[in-house]
Protein 1
Amino acid sequence: MKLTRTRLAVCALLALPATALAMPAQYVGPTPWTGAYIGAHAGINQSSASGLNTENSLTAGVSGGYRMALANSTAAPIILGGEVFADLNAQATHNANVSYGSDVIGVDLMAGYPLGEDQALLPYVKVGLGNLQATGDLGGSDIGGRLGIGLKYHVRPRLSVGVQWMTQDANSISNDNFTVGVDYALPMG
């Protein structure tokens, strides 16, 4: 099931920016989605380790990054960006005497396409790498690939809210995070 979900996410990731590759890319001026930003998110983490039950716990994290817009022949530009993040996933009891959680830090790349007359809605895909550090009864860390999808909405000129799903497989531990969050666009210039 994880393999099928991973393949589906990779196909979605490759399909979104494919249209941008067929068109000449050029930088476009500021849109609601360009520039530096910081953000915070919280939600539910679903984690599993080899031989243990899958359980839910709370997750919270912070992120920061930069997005730019590439012009194309349609009304809205393609949005591309990079982000650094840190996620703290609380511990949960997975089997009778095994309780663990995880902390993850890493980098993600994103591609999105603004929708709406004012381009206030941004569906996007992400791909990245994260260093997953097991906490509690499990130890060790491993770097694993991350995939995800999300949707952001501008509620104010510098403020956006969003929902996101990210999945990561790192050796013997897998994480799925379902979060809601807020981003603040930093002033430019």
Protein 2
Amino acid sequence: MNPNVSSSSTNNRRKTISVSGPAKYDQTRKRIERMEEERNERRRETEQKKAARKVEQAKLLAAGNPGDVDFIGMVQEWRDEQAKMHNNHKQPHYGPGSTDNHGNIIVAVRKRPMSNKEIQKKDHDSISCFHPKIWVHSAKFKVDGITKYLTHTGFQFDHAFGEDSTTDEIYMATTMPLLDHVVSTQGRATCFCYGMTGSGKTYTMSAIQQILAHDLYEELKEQGIQVEVTLAFFELYGGFVQDLLHDRKRCKLLEDGKGEVNITGLQEVPARSAEDFLRIVSAGHSQRTTHTTEANDSSSRSHAICQVFLRDPSNGDLKGKLTLVDLAGSERGSDTKSHNSLRRAESAEINTSLLSLKECIRALGQKNTHVPYRGSKLTLILKDCFSPDSKTTMIATVSPGASATDHSLNTLRYADRIKEQRISSSSNKRSTRGPASRTCTSSGPSRQRISRILSALKWNPNSSENQFDIQKATRVEEDADEKYIAESVSTLSGEISDLDDDEGTERPIKETKPTEREESEALRAARELFDVEEELRDEHFACLQDMAEMLQEEFKMIQDMEAMAQASDDAMDNYAIKLAEYLDRKELLIRSVQAKFDIVKHHREMNQSFTRDMEAFVQT
């Protein structure tokens, strides 16, 4: 190898390294610096986003809408887009430009504001109202478990009231047409409030009753109608009708030969003014049955029914009837897992009656010849409200919290099936089906009427010094009521044989006396069951006390035996004798409790048998 050539190539490599080395180093260093700058920029952006997220979260918390900031942002973005579209063709709830809600059925929905309990749970608002539509936003994650997205489920009703809607607006759009129908045509009308526990049913119904009290008497005065206003307020709980105005007295449900349902024992109370009206209603509300549920610490567990009668002062003939129903809170089966058997049976009965009510209102809206009002005692009581010429309003109340999304969807589906006005998520046009699409030609309520409706909510029935004596004002006395029962029984016994020959005519009842006897036996069985259950609890408690005392004595006996270095034969004999005594005493205590338990079990079987017989008798 030529040493000169080798030396030349080595020098060339050195020259190349010396020339290209610093340039490559500069490029690499620049790339590293650029990557460092990009990383720092991303970090700054992340910190800014975190800071902005904290500020936004604080703003939302101060505004009473806590929760996931990302979901809230997506909901707000969707609302902004919808608001732009709805501002161009916004529809009023009543008056000029509104739709005609004077069909047989009005279905409305009301969304309440976020509650303090939901705010503490950091729940966020997941419902949007753009009259006449309401949307439920369901927060979900994609398969990766990180990416968030929303689904929007829409429903369309006659009215959709948001959290900023006032009760007077709800009254004028939903209940005022019912009052006009009752006063002007001497007809019958019904207003229901339906929804999950804690959604604001009782709040809405109480406010409607307060406005109705003032509006009713002023309308009668303006139109010069001379009638006597009487009220009956009762609840349906556990299959029993209880008069809330007379110490929760239980009433009997009978049906006469003409198909009229009579609640014997229910007493009407005259209300000569709006103040009397509200005091009577307030007294009834205070007697309602409430229990703690999964969703509410004080949930109404009964259907409260307030009936307003307009009667002829001279002969007592009915000149109109308005029924206000505050339905018990609906619950799913999963919400009753921690309940006892009584609470679960109570919830099952509530849901059964709500299902029957939906079918009856649906049949009324479709003008079917057959209305299945015999599906439950609730619909049987409200039978006269399902006639073709009657009017019905249902106000569905929903909770805005994201944790109640499933409940809200169930409530809206229930109301949607009644009216059957479904919309797709991409539809922006109002459906033209049903009576809600007809144009209203009326100019709406007068300014004077609107003014008194707005001022009605300022009156507080509890602030009055004068107490209303319900017992003194009761329209139907006990003696007259017993006389009516006797006359009804004798009349029914003569009419039943005639009904057997009429084909196609429903037989309301087969016998009246067996019904009364079975009801009295069922009541007696229920009282006896309550007594023996009390005795069982007392016996069990006494048994536990004796067991605890014996347990302490046995521990002491064992400690004494262990303290002996070597137990003598006498000590062992005494130990065995005492142990045998303790075992005998325990056996006697257990047998005593077992005997009480067997008695309770027997009475429970009898009570369930009576209940099944009564339900079968009502359904026949």
Protein 3
Amino acid sequence: MLRQYELVEKVKGYDPDADEALINRAYVFSMKAHGSQTRASGDPYFSHPIEVAGILTDLRLDDETIATAILHDTIEDTVATPEEIQKHFGPNVARLVDGVTKLSKIEAQSESQRAAENLRKFLLAMSDDIRVLLVKLADRLHNMRTLHFIKNEEKRRRIARETMDIYAPLAERIGMYEFMTEMQTLAFREIEPAAYESITRRLAQLNKEGGGDLIQRIGRGLKAHLEANGVEAEVTGREKHPYSIWRKMAERHVSFEQLSDVMAFRCIVGSVEDCYRTLGLIHQRWPMVPGRFKDFISTPKRNGYRSLHTTVIHDEQMRIEVQIRTHEMHAQAENGFAAHWAYKEGASEVSTDHPWISDLVEILEHAASAEELLEHTRMAMYQDRIFAFTPKGELIQLPKGATPVDFAYAVHTDLGDQTVGAKINGRVMPLRTPLNNGDQVEILVSKAQHPQPAWLGYVVTGKARAKIRRWVKSKEREETVALGRKIFDEIVARLPEAPGWEAIAEALRRLNLADDEALFEAIALKRVDDLQVMEALNPGSTTGTGAKPPPQRTAISIKGLTPGVAFQLAECCHPIPGDRIVGLRREGEGIEVHTIGCDALASGIDADWVDLAWGDETDGGNARLAIVIKNQPGALAAIAGVLGSHGANIVSMDQTARDGSFHTFQFDIEVHDLQHLMRILAALRASDVVSTAERL
């Protein structure tokens, strides 16, 4: 832990004009406030805010931010008050401390709701001053470094998951890649310990097979080649981080052995011209892998990141990724927005000038629920960007995979609501067409149009999803009320006599409902059952009648179906929550639900197609996997262990092929949703006994 004078000297070392008295007052105030409190490690609690402040001094942040870091837990965890903070440290520090103060526990029905409400409050605070985010990220980073001291495994995993889902992508979005990488590594080690161990062990084995100095040898060769051609460069190399490798395995559906690029090298040169010259020299010397070149210098990322990326096949017959940048670009790449907050540039007052934060704030205002906000925010933080143009030449930035509908909503809400078609580069194209960099997009509109639920199957921006869902929810309420009215009529038919309006008004009072529409909605959503309604309408009518409550609701909830219509999940593709789905309706039959990529849809030309989406209260489903495993003792037990540790129940298992060293098994397993299945597949592919694992 930094001592008081060491912390002050560290700040004064890069900012001679820093307010030394402010930092000294904060140090003493925090030390007294935390008193004898201790952390799970047994260290004095006061050591934590000082370590957080130390992390931020490495970023050369201003004195107010350092003071905020020292004080950030005083309001939440001690008897200190916001008024005291403002009195002793001024309004700026008081505002920052209030923004960073640990969020109060929120009474919610689920952990996801609680996390989402925390995020909502956090984004509101962050939108006023991004230094709130910088302190919070440093706070979370130090907490992750000491996570192993917490004895409760469930608590450790919850903190790690929250770090992976929210804080690491937030760090990435503001370009703080060192923070992001360390958070991901620490969280991954906690969430998937077996996969983490497997990948790190294989990386060590790979380096050993290369003589123990493979990275250094490739780096020296790269540097020598550049210097021989007149380019001075700092060349460093590393193995890619375990979580990065894990994600690539999951995204590409490959095992570690099938992953070819696990090493990355960085060339730091003196100028932009040298960046492009270095790129040319590398491509002259080693074959380039098509489709892997990215120019973030001419088109920077939204967080300001600039660099050239390429992948080549090296002499060692392996793919290596190379990043090329200047020293200034490197500082920006490592510290992101924090590089703009160094003492020499002073502190900006409002951070909503940053486009991605503006987007999140807009979603914050329009998201229908806390969980919806969390979903949109995760999407916005994880996605890469593309650039498309309006017919007038206006540049519109969108996430990779965005469609014309996303484009329309990015231009204006009314344009999105009235979209009926789109021209991409002059050609009429389907609305689900993914846009590419440089596309010119013209949106075709009609005043009679309204948002379509099917759009939710392919839009990717939070703004578009929020607008569409708002309209869909209003439409769904109309349908819900209509269904409730129908059920109400059936309930009334079971009474000895039909109730008059006075009896209905009295029933509304007894059920604490505002009007008849609220009653119909409550009936349709099962907030009240038949017997409760009957008793409210005609007290005593249910006594001794033998009336039965309505049947239980199905555990599968699908939006887009007319209430009461029968449906079944197709056996050919086994759709699970999270899959994009479509329904086939044939005359005289119910609706059969398929995944959007199911081969059986080709035979559905004569059927009516129904746009469907999973509802909010779906318990999960069965997924079918084909797993090729090595023929060795304990292999099946290892597979069962992976499935069990990830909460998957094995429904059935069949051996479908046997070929000497490998056996192929078909597993039917119960999963919660598509994300759950993807985690299971990734874990299987990381197992030493698995050759391939695929969903059927």
